[in-house]
Amino acid sequence: MTLAAAMVMAAGLGSRMRPLTDDRCKAMVKVGGKALIDWTLDRLAGAGVARAVVNVHHHADALEAHLAGRSAPEIMISDERARLMETGGGLVQAAPLLGRAPVFTANIDSLWIDGPEPELARLARRFDRERMDFLLLLARLDHALGFDGAGDFFLDADGRLTRRGAAARAPYAFAGVQVMNPAVLDGWPREPFSTNRLWDAALSRGRVFGQVMDAFWMHVGDPQARDAAENRLRSHS
Known about the structure:
Elements: E1 5-9, E2 30-31, E3 34-35, H1 36-46, E4 51-56, H2 60-67, E5 74-79, H3 86-98, E6 103-107, E7 110-111, H4 119-126, E8 134-140, E9 144-145, E10 153-155, E11 161-163, E12 172-180, H5 195-203, E13 208-212, E14 217-219, H6 223-235
Parallel strand pairs: 1-4, 1-6, 4-5, 8-13, 9-14
Antiparallel strand pairs: 2-3, 6-12, 7-14, 8-12, 10-11
């Protein structure tokens, strides 16, 4: 399956990335000489995505000017200058631009180097609209850089996800990319809220699945993680 559209989450304030975000949005922070958002958009274009909706807020004018220089994928802007909508609310606001077919949603702070089969191609091929509302790309905690949490999910034999809950640790972290059926956004308010609320509703119906990535995951959430990612990219170039 090739997905025609994607939502790229680029409206955050990038508070943890300061001082690198004092004069730019997080999406424009460079790793390996390339802006984070271009790592994401290049990977989506390589997966056949023709249209990417990008939400903007922090340093929005500069980000829009940068995006105007791209030829692929086609960029559409979801403007959050007046009100930052968070991840779930951002999806609801952008829903009219996304269409009704399954779409990727992608954070801009996740990097990896693909193996023989690109991770996004594997993810799109696995998505089953009849069984799934969300299919999350997962990283193993022992195969990641820049993530200091206790893990997000457990994965059962069928690929369904359950949250870590009260457990001290879970083996997998959300790696910042998923395939989503836009129908899950129907009826949700156009107001700021987290994607976690969308996931919780779908988890209660057993419709959230995960796929473990083969590639080594780099979470670029702060300046130290940015430097570590640059070092790894340099050593593997």
